[in-house]
Each structure stands twice: as structure tokens, then as C-alpha cells.
Amino acid sequence: MWFKNLQIYRLPQNWNIDAETIESQLAGRRFHPCGSQDQETRGWVSPTGDDVLLHRVGGHWLIALGFEQRLLPASVVKQEAEERAEEIAAQQGYKPGRKQMKELREQIMQEFLPRAFTRRRKVFAWIDPVGGWLGIDAPSQARAEDVLEMLRQTLDNLPLALVRTERSPASAMADWLAAGEAPAGFSIDQDCELRSVTEEKAAVRYVRHTLEGDEVRGHLEAGKMPTRLALTFEDRVSFVLTEKMEIKRLDFLDVVKEKVDESGAEDARALFDAGFALMTGELRELLPAVIEALGGELKVAEPLAQAA
């Protein structure tokens, strides 16, 4: 169990809700497969493949939102509608109008949906009720919003806030690059993207390239700002920090993963739990360190807007 990305949100430390209450509320929106006329369904699934919807290890919680989508491309519906429209035109002597074409497409959708293939996926979310963190393993905030929306619909009490720091990630990353030095505990790796703040949005991307020297500083002096920067924390966790406070390409290095083997876990469930325990332990150290590197957390967090 290793997250690849992390969209970060704030919960009150020692959030006043117990695991049993959450699991009971999750059960009210358990995942069900698509019906014959459903294009997509979503609901909570077991993170470990059993019936338990809230997996608990060492004070950390893991949940998973499952999705099932019927794969019916619009091009298939359009092609079938055009073929039937030609037959109708031959019968009635004129082409179907807009209303008739709309009804025809809806009829085809109803006919084809039950036969369409389905695709399933799930998105994991980590909850640290003591540290006050909610982390979603999603590559973008838009993907994470699917989980947040379902959480709002599921839980009676979800006091989420956005993470806000004294310094913006872009400003801090610019200073680190200009100085050629990361804050204590971190090292700068070899991936970076710089983007102009002008209307042209000119961008320069470095991949596996040294970021030291006058070249990068020249782009900074020309007004470009970092939108992402690869970092390593304590030689244990590497990641890319973005201007939106996202953590991407999260990678727990061998010095961490080797501890799973050292744990003595043998079966799949024990290995899963060992990995999850190690991952969350590292995240509990990484996230406060990132916030400290950005000048500390603002005392008043910005509440997260509720879905309409």
C-alpha cells in the first residue's frame, strides 16, 4: 500500500468522530455495480477486499471510493444514429429533425448500455484523525473532488479546510532554486518546471537535469516562477511539489520499503498493513516538514467550499 500522489486537506486535530460511526455511515453508501441503464455508479468499497469499509492500522484510517463506468463511446452512438436516420429519411422522404434525432440517440443509448463493457477503478484516501490530515491518492484536485463530494454526502460531520502556509509554494521554490539549496531535511532533485506569469505563459521544463548554475537563475530573473520541483526528504521519500500544494510522483525509497521485509509479515494482509503503517508514518513526518519549509501553517485555515 503505497500512494503515488497526495492531495492534502486539513481536519481538526483529534477530530471528534469515532471509527465505528464513520464505518456505519460509509455503509449507507456502499458501492453497487452499474444497473442496465446506469452510465456510472460510485460508492465505498473495502480497501482490503473484504467487507470492512474503514481499515485501521496504528491510529490511521484508510478508505476507498469505487467507480464503475459503462464504456459507450459517443462516436458509436453517433454512427448508429446516422445510419438509422438515413433509413428513416428513405422511409418518410425527409431527414429527421433535431427532436427526432435526440429521441433516436436516447433510444440507442438505452439499447446499447446493457451490452457495453464496464470499467472499475478505486481511489484511496488516508485519514489521520490525530494529526488532522486527509490525503487522497489522486493526480489532480479534480479527481480528489470526487472523493470529497462523496464524503460530504456520506458523513454527518466533515470539517475540512484547505492547507494554507505563510509562503506560497511557488515563492519558496523560487528562493530555493535561486540559492541552489533546499531547506533543512530536503534536497533538490533534477526535475523542475518554470512558467512565465505573463499572458504568453512561456514554460521551461527540466527532466533529469541539474538545476544548479546560471541557466535556471536566468529564467527566475526573467520572471518565470516554479510550478513544480522535485525534492527528496531525509533520503527517504522523493516527490514533486507543485504550486498548488500538491504532492505528485510520491516515491518511498528503498530504505523505507525494505522495512516491510524486516517486519516479518508473510501473508498478503500482513504485508498490506506493514506497508500502510510505514507509509503513514513517513507522511506524518513529511507533511509537517513541508509546511515548516513554507514558513509554517496559517493559524486560520481556509474552509473548504461545500458542494452545491
From TrEMBL:
Q: Name one GO biological process term.
A: regulation of DNA recombination
Q: What is its main location?
A: cytoplasm
Top-rank taxon of the source lineage equals Bacteria
InterPro entries, A to Z: RdgC
- Localisation per UniProt entry: Cytoplasm, Nucleoid
Pfam families (UniProt xref): RdgC
Q: Name one GO cellular component term.
A: cytoplasm
Give the keywords, sorted: Cytoplasm, DNA recombination
What are the GO MF terms of this UniProt record? double-stranded DNA binding
Q: Which family does it belong to?
A: Belongs to the RdgC family.
Q: Briefly, what is this protein's role?
A: May be involved in recombination.
Protein name as it appears in the record: Recombination-associated protein RdgC
Originating species: Azoarcus taiwanensis
State the gene name recorded for this protein: rdgC
